[in-house]
Design goal:
Layout: H1 7-14, H2 19-41, H3 46-68, H4 73-76, H5 79-94, H6 100-125, H7 130-152, H8 165-180, H9 185-206
Helix pairs in contact: 1-6, 2-3, 2-5, 2-6, 2-7, 3-5, 3-6, 3-7, 6-7, 6-8, 6-9, 7-8, 8-9
């Protein structure tokens, strides 16, 4: 069955000057940079930098496209891999800097917000139900980071108490909610991305975290 495509959202995704297209490339770029920074922590060579950047930058979007039956985005447009390679080279050329690994956290925050929105928006263009759009937003934002952490031998973002996945869920949920209220695509995307980034930024600045499962009561 051919998916029902939302013409307005599809046009926004295809238009390079639209908010969604900007968020798409921004999300790829910042996630690619986090992948390269993870490679830098392990002191890998430049080829591994590019591999980490690419797998992190396009991993989440690849899974999303496969699940919703869309053409895999980076196969259709070479610029996405180009952005990943450029991000890897930029991190390599910057060299060792004290601030570089702190930047990894803030870039990850921006990527979670941008891709949380972008994943939900892409699913929307294929007529996916609102709840599944939110799930696709979270998958798009988080899967590349999960693979990055696995390759780098780091604890997965899914296992951290600090707010990470929740920021992507907030961005995706806010976007879907605003769209259901009839808000146009670009203001909905910008507001939702800012909300997701704000939540993650608060976690970085003030140590916000979700409550864990309580200990069993003593007998």
């Amino acid at each position: 069955m051919t998916p029902l495509v939302d013409p307005q959202a599809a046009m926004a995704l295809a238009n390079p000057s639209s908010a969604l297209a900007v968020l798409d490339f921004a999300g790829v770029a910042v996630f690619a940079a986090t992948g390269a920074l993870a490679a830098a922590q392990q002191r890998h060579d430049v080829v591994t930098f590019a591999f980490f950047a690419a797998i992190t930058g396009v991993g989440g979007g690849t899974l999303r496209d496969l699940l919703i039956g869309a053409p895999v985005f980076w196969v259709q447009d070479w610029r996405y891999i180009g952005v990943c390679i450029a991000a890897a080279l930029a991190i390599w050329l910057i060299g060792r800097r004290d601030w570089r690994f702190r930047a990894l956290l803030w870039l990850d925050a921006a990527g979670l917000a941008a891709y949380g929105v972008m994943g939900a928006a892409k699913a929307e263009t294929f007529g996916v139900a609102p709840l599944i759009c939110i799930v696709m937003g979270a998958l798009t934002a988080c899967f590349g980071g999960i693979v990055r952490d696995l390759l780098a031998g780091q604890p997965s973002i899914l296992l951290r108490r600090e707010v990470t996945v929740s920021a992507a869920l907030l961005a995706a949920t806010a976007y879907v909610g605003l769209r259901l209220l009839g808000i146009e695509i670009w203001p909905a995307a910008v507001v939702a991305a800012l909300l997701g980034f704000g939540l993650r930024a608060g976690a970085l600045a003030w140590g916000w975290s979700l409550p864990g499962f309580p200990d069993a009561p003593a007998r």
